[in-house]
Fold each of these.
Amino acid sequence: MSQKFRIARAAELESLGVLRDFIHDQCARAGIDDATTYELKLAADEACTNIITHGYAQMNPGSLILDLEIDAHQVVLRITDFGHPFEPSEPIAPDVQAALDDQPTSGFGLFFIYSVMDAVDYRATEEGNCLMLTKRRAPKVVPV
Amino acid sequence: MATKIVSKEYKRVDLVEISGRIDSSTAPQLEQTLNKVIKDGRFHIVVDMADMDFMSSAGLRALLSALKQVRRFNRGDLRLAAMSSKVKKAFELAGLLDVFQVFDNSVDAVGSF
């Protein structure tokens, strides 16, 4: 049996803290370990930042809807928006040396999403754009 | 916890203490603080993360940008202290642990200059 939670907020950078708090609180309630929760918050933060800054670029800020579904094996986070479709493609590792040599420093956000999640899926439909992030739960350690 | 960034000027080093979270909405605050220290001609900086509980890529970019400025002409360095294991993992993934000097606490980081 899975537990489902939802939050909707304006697609503004000021909403990021509330969205992370939502993930934190629901994961804590469901007994998800701290490391997994942090990685979900990091991936969600990076994805929502991309949606706010690119997906809703040159538009009035619309909505960001987070649906969190937790079962015994995994946590699935669906992020829905109604901005320009912005499909995150799997990035290569950011070139830190290039960043230090005065090249533009970018690419960390997408890199983090793909590095810390087990699966990333994106669908753009008439009902909105949906980014699905899946993270497997860490197995419980049973004392011997 | 509201994000708070405080800089303290010592004789040889400036200590920038972060409490709370650094994301795209608060990273400009970190950038401004670091830029002010650098603009004042102070290039030995320690960033204390003991009370920081979250940092996204926006924070990493702010730190990298400051690192780039202080290392120019070999005039200084920006060193990190008291990073939590979760934040450390993000630095590790991005390959930044090879770029920054990281210390267990701010006393050691300040003493390293």
Note: Chain A has a mean pLDDT of 90.
Amino acid sequence: MYRYDEFDHAFVNERVAQFRDQAARRLSGELTEEEFRPHRLMNGLYLQLHAYMLRVAIPYGTLSSRQMRKLAHIARRYDRGYGHFTTRQNIQYNWPALEDVPDILAELAEVEMHAIQTSGNCIRNVTADQFSGVAADEIEDPRIYAEIIRQWSSLHPEFSFLPRKFKIAVTGAAEDRAAVAFHDIGLRIVRDGNGEGDGEVGFEVIVGGGQGRTPMIGKTIRPFLPKEHLLSYLEAILRVYNLLGRRDNLFKARIKILVHEVGAAAFTGMVEEEWEQLKGGPVELPKGELERILAYFAPPAYERLPAVTPAFEAKKFEDRAFARWAEVNLFPHKQPGYAVVNLSLKPEGEPPGDATAAQMDAIADLADRYSLSEIRVTHEQNLVLPYVRQADLHALWQELVPLGLATANIGRVTDIIACPGLDYCSLANARSIPVAQQITRRFNDLTRIHDIDELKIKISGCINACGHHHVGHIGILGVDKKGEEFYQITLGGDATQTAAIGAIIGPAFSAAEVVDAVETLVNTYVDLREPGERFLDTYRRVGPAPFKEKLYATH
Amino acid sequence: MPQQVLTANRLSDGAVVFLDAEGRWSERIAAARVAEKADAQALTNAGEATAAEVVAPYLIDVTLEAEGPRPLRYRERIRAFGPSIHPEFAK
Amino acid sequence: MPLIKGGALSDDDWVSVGDDEPLPADRPVIVPLKRWQAERDALGGRNAAMGVRLESADKAEAIAADLGRLALVAIAFPTFRDGRGFSTARLLRERYGFKGELRAVGNVFRDQFLFMHRCGFDAYEVADAREAEAFAAALASFSVVYQRTGDGRVPATALRQLRRAAE
């Protein structure tokens, strides 16, 4: 993974010093809240319902064990002993004191971390496929480009006061695990010439996707962009957006609205016209720099192992519980004899995506012993150990179980994404975490969970959709109906390359009814499915009518 | 006629606080100074003396229970008493 | 309003006039864009320097062809959030080669000085003269930048290559 050089170290340390000064001026009263707020936000510090909330960046979801230990330490020393992993691969702390934040940022800087631009109307954390570098279907590691974009976007003097926040995602494989179609800019690594064999590697550029109040699927504005022009093209897009994005209405200020209002063709024309002036110019990344960063993402020194590990196969045979976990929580590794291990942060009854300081420390240890000291954070609020030898899987699993990190539910009905909701967030209309907890209790039987197979439930506590409900196979949106919490259900959302926005199925359900409603939907699917069909496939085949009928039968 | 209390977040640590009878900011809603809605301006004025300690004070509607003021809005109850999912952080 | 120029508080020779006010003779004046566009030829014959004020929605292209006749362009920042002026400034400096004074006016805070400077501004109208004290520190707050702009600073990405070449 990328390691800071003295330039990167100097940069984050200077940023810490700058914020220390800004915070001091606020605490002394020299700055009003209104004057301080933009600085607070550009350092990822929100003021929420109960307290401040600090969002720490985990660039493209990659962490070293040393960094994970520091995150654990911060949770213990400055917060209430836990952290929350988010839908943009970051971590959030819910209880830091403003007085402590400069020290927190200084501690983060020691391990090459920061909270720069995790909020505010600027370019946010660049996210990437959580299986980058280890997935067999990958053309190139998208994190190389995510790192290049991270540096280029850090305190960019022209783009720090955009109309609204700006989110970029990069994916490197045919299967899109980074939801690029739902980002302001999505970059898909492709081969030129229809992807046959040896074409030059570059990017498909997708612009104007997003969720929130007006969910939209991004439009491809350039099917192939040569690698060497990545930064000039991004600069062209951002400049067009900065100048023309709406500034009159906060809810209409994302780039998706601009693309929609002027039309994709006209928008593309403006970008291409600006790009003509920038292409090949001083903004481009020097070739040597691409090579330098590429080297950090070279494959690790794998052992030469056979593709099949008899000991692993035997253990699955002997240990049923282990077999069930292996069936669902592993992802195929491109290196023979290795596996990608998903750590579920969705145990029964717990807030999704939370980890205690003790768990974080334990994960750091496990990463050191089993995964070449590297961990990934997924946008579905789970963690990954990317370099585990198959021969070690059983031993690893045995250590995960008592830590509560071995729930065999990845991608299944109880692997729920939920935003913090009304329990934490000042924007929310309803609570989301309790709904997730109740669903995990209702579906707590592993046999049933596995029988239901892949089902992605996503819950948002308000229309800002931080829980990504629009792209849930089942989406749940919390609303306020006359002071009471109600939940609107959408069906058929899809965040992958077969992108789709979920459709509202009917009137909202009360807090008491919503879990029954989810169970009705699941049962309907089980009744109607054909062999090999997931929930989403059945829904696409039969449409909403059968689900609607069962859902509202007794209403 | 609803009663009101003045609430804010403390600047230094973000904690939810309520203006008490002594004009200080308390973490406990039970200690909050209560005013009739019609007299709520007095609350706002009283808060001004120590406004530098807090961020964005605002008035909320409450009912008076045995244990003290109870916010009418669910959102404000969560603020006053803590997140529903972490009873260990309850106040 | 206090003006920062050349790194410190400075006298301001310029007079800003609105759409209809008469222009003071022999003084450098700043006129709104619309007025410049309407009276361009007449204004060109003045004995003193001309400046144009762009609002945040005004485009650099609107005066690109006139830059040879302008000694100053002022770009407005009506609110802290409105960052259009940063792009407009870069285009004027880097695309259209403007060599005169590029002045940021409106809501200018010390924490924007470095960004503005990097985008090509060299004069700043501030609400409070004390902001001038912070100016030098603001410009020096980061020894490392990651982007190339017209300000001549070499970004880290390039410095690394220079260092590699030297090894």
Note: Chain A is about 35% helix and 15% strand.
Amino acid sequence: MRNFDYAAPTSLAEAASLLARAPGTARVLAGGTDLIVQLRENVREADLVVDVKRIPELTELAYSAGTGLHLGASTPCYRIYEDPAVSAAYPALADAARIIGGWQISSRASVGGNLCNSSPAGDSLAPLLALDARCVIVGLDGTREVAAADFCTAPGRNVLAKGELLAKLVFPAPAPKASSAYERFIPRNEMDIAVAGASSWVQLNAAGDTIIDARVALSAVAPTVRLATAANRWLVGQPAVEATFERAGELARESASPISDMRGTVEFRRHLVGVLVKRTLATAVARALAGE
Amino acid sequence: MSKKLHVTTTVNGEAVEFLCEPRQSLLEVLRETMRLTGAKEGCNNGNCGACTVLMNGVPVNSCIVLAVEAEGAKLETVEGLADHGHLHPLQSCFLEGAALQCGICTPGFLVTAKALLDRNPNPSEHEIRFQLANNLCRCTGYDKIVRAVQAAAAELRATKACGAGGSGTVGHADAGCGGPAVAGPAKTT
């Protein structure tokens, strides 16, 4: 690996200053599971690596039922699925955190890093959209917020400008009679990149028989993770039954614009969208009814 | 361009200081600077798990950790598993159960399995396979490895039930799988 300078700032202001004033290319280091491999294989270069894990806000995992979840951008995935309250409040996020690589990867990899890597196949990205997370971005000029749905702009690209870093992700407080799920398809049991993925969030009425709000998001079937807008609109007011999940899956297929590559064809990916949306809606509804 | 950085860390319970370049991996420094060659370089890109060490109690691939990130951390390597010359039950059960052939993956399996048994003394076969998914073996297949972990878990539970020591220090030669004492130096420091 080519050498670089290393800095481990302890405050957001110091990190923003380092990133903004670096003479060459500065890269943020969170868990390093993407970055260190990319640097070693010369896929990306860095003159300065800024390790953000000594900044307290970047590794926070603060949840309360009233205010929601504040997830530091470099908080490792294992802390999400090992936290029973967070896993119960945001099951789609825990579903994804549990299957990002194996244990050694989830010990280090973070949801913020997954988002900043901006792969359309990143497992935690669809749950961020389904759960309506907001991204808190810090730069020299202060703080701005972007919806998770607007963060990625193209494969490997996002809205961060030079000198900016993702500080944390903020999730709304869990709504009553609501829950979520994430599933992906891979040809192996574990440790693979999604051929397609879907995350669903639903809210039911008090009787638990009708969907009153829904957000379905799709991964690995477009240049960026995206919301299945037509399905989401149609789902409001529908009965929470199998036929509804099936129809939503069909509508979501229209939101996908996949490519054919070594992992799957356009036809197969569209088919997977239908199956995964149907399954995640069914799981999310079952969890909402079970009071998760 | 970059000057060497000074890092203070703890390895297998002992305070250690070293100098490294920012680009050096933790694996490189463990093997080449500290001469702890238990962790192996398999793929060098985070896939195979042969370089697994525990960092603050959780398993990590040391090939994709920068050595400088170990500042202030508590590291445990396979060299720390045996207790004063007595193999850890995982080590003796791997030997007794022939859960290895070439042995390159073994240190990684042992360290990940230790982290698993520290958290869950009685894991199901599914849990063992799921938690060891980031450790690849190209020789034996996984059945013997899973059985060795199950045997070690049973031995550790039995030792604990007997109240032997009670401090979590286990791995006496006469317990369960009956692993032999280590012939060479037990720890490299």
Note: Residues 165-189 of chain B have pLDDT under 50 and may be disordered.
